[in-house]
Amino acid sequence: MIDVEGISKSFGETRALAGEGSRVARNLGRGGERVVLAARDKPKAGSLAAGLGELASLATVADAVAQADTVVFAVWPAAEKELISQLSPALAGKVVTGPSNPVGPDGHGGLARTLPEGESAAPVVAKLLPAGARYVKAFGTVGAGELGSAARSEFGGHAEKKG
Predict the structure, then answer these.
(1) Is 162 part of any domain?
(2) Which of 2, 79, 120, 140 has a CA 20 to 30 Å removed from the CA of 103?
(3) Is residue 3 one of the residues assigned to a domain?
């Protein structure tokens, strides 16, 4: 779990989270950050905002971006590209954080790579942003549990210890 306690309280910034960034929103809220949530599942996002208290609110994606200094797109890569295209002028001057990995649903209940081997999502997304926006790759769409599970199966039931 990310501990953001005090990391940027002194800046008084607002973070917009578009998509399924509930873990990120909870951690930012615990750290005293103002968070504006925007998601397709408005009742779920509204419940999360209410649970985070007075520093959290619910808005449309466009309004959340307008209110924020930093934007986190916690969505699949295709949706991230679409949102950047739609919101490009509003993203100028903002820090955009992209947790997406170049994967998407494979149609069989799993995930498949969406970019050619060896190509990273970060430079692809950064090129889509308007002038003045800064891109930061952080977090990730593949959760720690899934990564740990994959590591355990790959290494015979336990994660390889490096060191």
Answers:
(1) no
(2) 2
(3) no
Domain membership flag for residue 70 = yes
Alpha-carbon distance of 160 to 27, in angstroms, equals 29
**Residue 132's CB: how many other CB atoms inside 10 A?**
9
CB 15 within 8 A of CB 35: yes
First to last CA, the chain: 22
Give me the domain span that covers residue 134.
Answer: 9-154
CATH value at residue 111? 3.40.50.720
DSSP for 3-68? --TTSSGGGT-EEEEEES-HHHHHHHHHTT-EEEEE-S-HHHHHHHHHHH-TTEEE--HHHHHHH-
Collect the ranges in the chain with pLDDT lower than 70. 1-12, 20-21, 140-163
**What is the model's pLDDT at position 145?**
52
Degrees to nearest 5, angle at CA 109 with 105 and 110: 60
Domain for residue 104, yes or no? yes
Predicted pLDDT of residue 151: 41
Residues 6+ apart with CB under 8 A from 146: none
162/94 Cα distance (integer angstroms): 38
Q: What is the pLDDT of residue 4?
A: 35
pLDDT at position 130, please?
A: 96
